[in-house]
Amino acid sequence: MVSKYLRYYQRAAGRRKIIFLPKSHKKKYSKNSVIFSPGDQGNLIYYVLSGRVKIYNLSECGKEIIYWFCQPKDFFGLAEVCDGEVRTVFAEAVEDAEVLCINRANFEDLISRNPKIAVFIMRMLGSRIRQAHETIKELVICDVHTRLAQLLIKLGQICGCSHNGVITIKVYPSGNGKHDRGYKDNCDRSDE
């Protein structure tokens, strides 16, 4: 179920962009461009203006572990900016994307002048922690079929398109051709 927080966050995020603009710069990334990698300095926060960004890691055997897909009006890269550590995950544009970038010093100045932004960021990070806890609980308690069903429901709520009572979830090709047949260009094809 999409939380009230997520809906608030999506509504509020547009207003936050206005505050961030003077202290940030825009950057464009083409599809499959890596925005940051593990070991990179965590000195920028990103806000998605357009496109989508995948947050993931790689297992020791090279398997991709996807944590999150950032949609327009989502922030990412916050944890490392807040704790001053290096990046521990990858961020990659899964389609052409434009983001706002704000550095640590400007971010700290911004939240010191606007405490409501600090509260907003704390709520967002708290929501992500709750989502991580839910995922861990599902991994421990649920069988694979239940986990898959729950994941599809969550994805449908977050980024699904409804047409004639059918929810379509856009699947992004991996770039290696393996998943290209599952790719949907738009929601109009949901009744196929």
Q: What does this protein look like?
A:
Strands 1-8-3-6 form a four-stranded antiparallel sheet. The chain has a four-stranded antiparallel sheet with strand order 2-7-4-5, with no helix packed on it. It has 192 residues and is an alpha+beta fold. The model is unreliable at 1-10 and 175-192 (pLDDT under 50). The protein starts with a helix and ends in a 23-residue tail after the last strand. The chain is 40% helix and 26% strand. The protein folds into two domains: 4-115, Jelly Rolls (Sandwich), CATH 2.60.120; 142-189, no CATH class. The chain has helices at residues 4-20, 78-83, 104-113, 115-141, 144-159, and strands at residues 25-29, 34-36, 44-50, 53-58, 64-70, 75-76, 90-93, 97-103, 160-163, 166-169.
